Each structure stands twice: as C-alpha cells, then as structure tokens.
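Subject: sequence -> structure tokens, single chain

Hey, anyone have a minute? Need the predicted structure for the following. Not urgent.
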Amino acid sequence: MLEAQDVTKTFKQGSSEIRAVREAGLCVEEGERIYIHGRSGAGKSTLLHLLGGLRRPSAGTVSFLGKNVYKCSDRKRSMIRNRHFGFIFQLYHLLPELSVMENVMLPARIKGGLSGRKLKNRAIRLLKTVGMEERLSHKPAAISGGEAQRTAIARALINGPDILFCDEPTGNLDSEMSDRIYTLIKEISETQKMSVVVVSHQEVKKDFFHREYIMDDGRISAVNAGPA
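Reply:
Had a minute. Here:
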C-alpha cells in the first residue's frame, strides 16, 4: 500500500547539513500495524512526515498505491492526505476557534459526502469512545493536554483512513487511557483493514504491532515481528 525507497531528508543549519533521515526503506501493507521507536532526535517524526506526504524528501521516493506521492501536485497530495491518511500529532494542532466537536468534524467537512446528521453522529461516537462526550462544546483552551490528545485521535479517525500515522499518540495520557486508545486503534485496524504507523518513545505492547523498527541517527532497521 505504502512504500518508501531510499528516503533521505537533509536540513540546513548554518553552513552545516543535518541528515535527519538516511536512506530509509519501509513497506506498509494493508491492515498492517508498524511500531517505530528510538531516542529523541533519531528522526522518527521526520520519517513519519515524509511517509504521510507532509514534508518532501531530499532524495528517494514515497509511493501510495503505486503512485509517487511527491510527484503529485500540492492539491492532489492534500487530497490524498484528507481521503486516505489520518494523523495523530504530538502537538495536537487543534484549531483554537473551533469546539471539540467542530475540530473532529473538520476533515470530514473538507472531504464531503456525509449529511450533517450522519457526520455529527459519527463524531459523537468517536468522542464517546475516547471519553470526551462531556466536552463537545469546549474550545481547546478550556481542555487539558490529555483531552486535547483524545480529541486529536477522534479527528484522525473521522474519515476512516486507509493509513493512520501516529506521532506519540498517547504521550499525554495515563496508562488506562493509553491502553484504551491502542485497543480502539487495533479494533478499527482489524475491522476496516486500516494500516497504522506509530512512532513513540513509549513502549507499545507486542500484541498491537506486526512489525517493529528502531531508528538511530536517521537510519531505520527492523527489530522483530510481533504476534499481532
């Protein structure tokens, strides 16, 4: 479904160059869940952004369903992200002027195709699942970091993505809610054949992922396969 070949990302820092990702290769199959971990600064988030069509690589290719994502126009790439990809960001990226409910519904409003009632009902179901049913009308400034993270998770799932990209998806949640979120993601992955790529400092239970990778100094290498 998704394939990265020899992907490299270099950043300029003054007169120096920093290689955040070095010749990374990764394939993500339909319904497969992948876990990538490593120390801070190893390149995990940068790699996730490259895979998700958010940041153009300096070299290499990223293909989705056989098409080179970065040879598409900006408009086409935005359409791919909206219709096929879901993102859970470490910093939430909720719009401050919108309520919790409105933030969750926004990607589906952009995509179109659902009546207002169906969209609202889907958003409420997701928000109940992540324990946010009492906060529907609250703005991001009035909720905690953990609540903002749960809102972002519901937003990422609203369009039923083919691939869910997760950057520290439970970093601000307690262990009970973290387990609940990973269980939800796994259930949706299995029932809808949704692929998942998680990058995290935190340990992820082995029954969640199919394959495990480690990143070090921008390089990715396989660790082992999980039993999921």
